[in-house]
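Re: Re: ligand-bound prediction request (bumping)

Still looking for help on this. To restate: I need the protein modeled with coenzyme A bound, output as structure tokens. Inputs repeated here so nobody has to scroll up.
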Amino acid sequence: MEPLPPARRKRSKPLPSVDIREMELRDVSAVFDLGQKLFTAEEWPTLYRSWDDHELAQLFSTEAETCLVAEAEGRVIGFALGRVMQKPRSAWRYGWLLWLGVDRRFKRNGIATRLVKQLTGLFIERDARIMLVDTAAKNHSAINFFRRNGFGQEIRHVYLSQNLENDPRYIERNDDPTNDDTED
Ligand SMILES: CC(C)(COP(=O)(O)OP(=O)(O)OC[C@H]1O[C@@H](n2cnc3c(N)ncnc32)[C@H](O)[C@@H]1OP(=O)(O)O)[C@@H](O)C(=O)NCCC(=O)NCCS
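Reply:
Sorry for the wait, this slipped through. Here it is.
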């Protein structure tokens, strides 16, 4: 027998009207707060990108044209932040969707789909030929979402790490009282 499709959560209230628009300076703090709730350190162990105010400020200051928010009743309830990039020695331009998030209370109402569709249009207007996304292998909801929205050709990437605390140089450095790098 075919497995049943996952049940959609019933909302107690009808969905308010949701507007997708370019992100503005006044949205930065709301986007940051929402991202803090969605991208927690435990769920997002990758080091090369982390959700912090510096990353967001930098992205917004250089790529505002490809940063979108979803707004309902005057509040930011979602965002899609991306940038167009060109790889060295490649004539192709890529649209990279860096951060996508929707307030948990509004999930599975097609808001991320609308954000991604609009961002895709912005990438195409900026001559991107390929759109890229990445996420943790265990982020099944995002992977489902991306597959459903036309992404494929999945490449697995492996992160390795090494604890340096047992390295004699680490021990020496941390035993040296003159090496106090801690901030006041
Ligand atoms: C992934 C995310 C952006 C999806 O937002 P959304 O607004 O709920 O997505 P949409 O309503 O447009 O699309 C829903 C579809 O995505 C997939 N999906 C979303 N959440 C899912 C879940 N928990 N389990 C399985 N599939 C899921 C399904 O295909 C779903 O379709 P369905 O509801 O008909 O089954 C949202 O869950 C989120 O903010 N996650 C945390 C941040 C994150 O992981 N970002 C992506 C990497 S940067």
